[in-house]
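DM between two lab members

TW: hey, do you still have the Mitochondrial fission process protein 1 entry open?
JB: yeah, one sec
JB: this one, 165 aa:
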Amino acid sequence: MEPTEEKTSKTVDIYRDTWVRFLGYANEVGEAFRAQVPVSFVRGTYAVATVYVTADAVDKGKKAAAAHGDKPGRATRVAAAVVDTFVWQALASVIVPGFTINRVCAASLHLLARTTKWPLPVRKWTTTAIGLSTIPFIITPIDRSVDFLLDSSLRKLYHEDEKEE
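TW: and the structure you got?
JB:
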C-alpha cells in the first residue's frame, strides 16, 4: 500500500487531527493576552474552548453509539465516552492549562515589575510573549498528567462496567 493510500484510509477525527484542535487552546491564548485585553475577551476565549470540548464529547458519544449498535450496554458505553471525553478535554484543554498560563503570566508580570525599570506596556507585552511561548511546553505534560489522573480514578469505573458485561 502506498503512503497516500494509507493516509486516506484512516478516519480523520476533526477534533483531534485538524486545525479544529487549536480551538481547545483558545483560552491559553486568552490568558497570555490577559494583560493586554479586556476581561470579556479572555472570557470569550474560554467560551470558544468550552464549545470545542462539548462538541468533541458529543462527537465521541455519537461514534460510540454507532460502534455499539443495538447491543446491550449501549447507553452505558455512550455515556462513558461522553463523560470521559468531556472530563479529559475540560481538564487537559481548558482548566489546567488556563490556570497554568494565568499563573505564569501573573508571576512574570510581577517579577518584571520588581526586577526591571521597563515601562508597563513593555512589561505587559513581555508577559504576553512569555505566556504564548509557554503553551507548547505545557501541553504534553498536562495531557499525560490528566491521562494518569483519569486512569487512576474515573476510568476504573468504566473498566468495571466492561467486566460486568
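TW: got it. Confidence is low (pLDDT under 50) at residues 1-6. The chain has one domain: 3-164.
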